[in-house]
Prior knowledge:
Blueprint: E1 9-14, H1 19-28, H2 30-33, E2 37-40, H3 42-52, E3 56-58, H4 66-75, E4 81-85, H5 95-107, E5 112-113, H6 116-126
Parallel strand pairs: 1-2, 1-4, 2-3, 4-5
Amino acid sequence: MTDPNARKTLALIAHDGKKQTMLEFAREHQAVLARYDLIATNTTGRVLRDELGLAITLMLSGPMGGDAQIAAQVAEGKIEAVFFFIDPLAAQPHDPDINGLLRICNVHNVPLATNAASASYMISGRAL
């Protein structure tokens, strides 16, 4: 049985072309993010940790399997929501992992924000 008082976990991922957008989002919502356990793919997590001082558990980088690691945690029911800022104008060498994560979020009914507008809506208290 899950402890209702346990901190919930959010996953943060951003393609290279969207890391600055993720940083701006996290800066704007830092107080809310600090109330959660945070995990992130390696490069995204390092940017957020170094720039904002957020406590973040780092997974592998996306191309090395970080997306798949996060997908596994979604499937295990360990993640409350995923914030994955996708660059729709850049091809990604690890598209199968990305699509797998998106599919797993949908299969397990886990909220998924793929841009700053949807993430801001989710984190504003209307969704999470």
